[in-house]
User: Fold these one by one.
Assistant:
Number 1:
Amino acid sequence: MNLATALKAQETPRIVAAAPAGPPAISLRGVEKVYRTDRIETVALQSLNLEVGSGEFLSIMGPSGCGKSTLLNVMGLLDRPSNGEVSLGGRVVSSYRDKDLAALRNKEIGFVFQSFHLINDLTVVDNVELPLLYRTMSGRERRRLALEALDRVSLSSRVHHFPTQLSGGQQQRVAVARAIVGKPRLLLADEPTGNLDSAMGDEIIGILTELNERDGATVVMVTHDERQAAKTQRIVRLFDGRQVH
Ligand SMILES: Nc1ncnc2c1ncn2[C@@H]1O[C@H](COP(=O)(O)OP(=O)(O)O)[C@@H](O)[C@H]1O
Ligand SMILES: [Mg+2]
């Protein structure tokens, strides 16, 4: 092994776990995203080909404005690419209607955002139940699943608190509980530790790692933090909307 290869190997700290047989969790082919406003055209993503294996834990890194959030939103079916094809678990979703995309997203994808996005007027457990309101199930079953999710993030003692009564790290744990309450196969996190100190950030990464390793969730995380990214199986770097390696 020459020095360059050795250094590169060092950058990838863990061997990627053998992906289970079957289609990739997400596959992007020739994806482009152009934002057009009256005067300006911004190319946020270009010529992007990316496959995320089922059961993988991947981070996306790159400077501010390089398209990381756009990429995550396209992967999460929150936004449609201007060109190219997106497949989720082997299904090409480009031709899906908005309503069907929303249903698929609700069932199979959990999101975590930098600024938590909790509803401050609702208690912790009510926040976590929210994604389940779109499904047919009894109130009792919703509550059971929400409490189970809160237990996974060690917040069983805070279920009747309001978000503003919690620390930032606890609020992000509530957001993670909300993301996993519907048992999605895919978790997408956009700078989930960006507003947290490093100890709280480590806790969140620990929870995401456990969901990946123990529950087999596919996790894609945008981060600015090399230390957190190094804990994941693979790093994809973007620059000006393109993958650099
Ligand atoms: N809704 C939008 N309308 C117009 N331009 C946008 C929109 N969202 C993002 N952009 C532009 O697309 C580029 C990529 O943005 P973004 O994906 O948010 O980058 P990052 O998350 O890496 O900081 C930026 O130049 C940004 O200004
Ligand atoms: Mg962003």
Note: The chain is about 35% helix and 25% strand.
Number 2:
Amino acid sequence: MLRFAERTKGAKRSAIRELLKYTEQPEVISFAGGLPDPAAFPLDFLANVAQEEILHNAVKSLQYTTTEGKRPLRQSLAQWLLEEGIKTTMDQIVITAGSQQGLDLLGRVFLNEGDAVFVSLPTYLGALQAFRAYQPTLVGIPLEEDGMDLDFLRRAIREARRAGHDPKLIYVVPDFQNPTGITWSREKREELLEIAEEEDLLVVEDIPYRWLRYEGEHLPTIASLDRYGRVIVLLTFSKILAPGLRIGALVGPEEVVNMVVTLKQGADLCGPSLTQRLAVRFLTDYNLKEHFARLCQHYRGKLAAMLDALARHMPEEATWTKPEGGLFVWVKLPDGVDTTKMLERALAHKVAYVPGQPFFADGSGQNTMRLSFALATLEQIEEGIRRLGAVVKEEIAALSLAKQG
Ligand SMILES: Cc1ncc(COP(=O)(O)O)c(C=O)c1O
């Protein structure tokens, strides 16, 4: 018999990945994936620099590299982050295989069994998966329109401490969160830092969607407001360049970065040299301003089309977020609707979404769903939301019939 480790006991495959199998039939209009649109990848640029790097820079692009990642990449990232108001040096940066590896490494470095990690309800599913491997106590904090309910957070930290769970990390995605699209207000960003300082916790600020703002003003990163050295930033090139390169970065206090590098050595020796070189070239040789403007232009119309279609096709019992960026819109249906069960009806109508429940650390959220507008065309968005509106109306009608019966 196989005797797996204790930590595998609660391990679950992502419901979303399992589900994507069913949404791949060509007639299904899918809002389920969380992937960026390949039409926005700078193919010629990547192909040219990959060829140059392989043919003329093989030692740097094909040999092992350092565990913390290539110096020029860390240097150019530090410079770029300065534009975001984050003062950092290359010694405070470690390159990771996407921000997902950053999440796993933070779990390794900080979490003993039972330690408390505070996450919003809902939160990014991949963070729950990464942390769960280290058997923490995940504490869900309600998410409001402008960020976490911080009074609730304060109480939850004290309760966790009283119950013997050492409060360690607060995990947040403050810009166009996955799955809701919600962005934190400046006030809440500032207050979160005060809580972290008062209660002696670290904030993990995960910002994959930050550069995908289609409307409104940029808000400062939590890290740029931090006077206490309590923020660890997770960055990724997945949504602004291409996820298959698997390039991200963890940025934080030097002691944290040193410990992460030490444990990362055992995990992978080093990240991929070739794609790190491509990322350096992207930061130094590509016009980032123009690139981000093109990306935003690409997604802006899709988001507007989805919000417009929802307003026309959803029944009045449904509500949804109105994000100013990112890749997702979050829909809430009346209590009693179970979006996991409803998915069968949706697939019969040839439309797919992600049920919201897996994003909730406490198993709630049955009546919610996540819609991504990134991969669909404008026509598919209109037709898909029309189908989804019909599905939701049928489901609500079936539910009220069942109640009467
Ligand atoms: C909030 C958030 N964090 C982290 C990730 C992981 O992305 P990657 O590992 O490709 O950087 C994602 C991917 O969708 C995400 O939405």
Note: DSSP finds 14 helices and 14 strands in the chain.
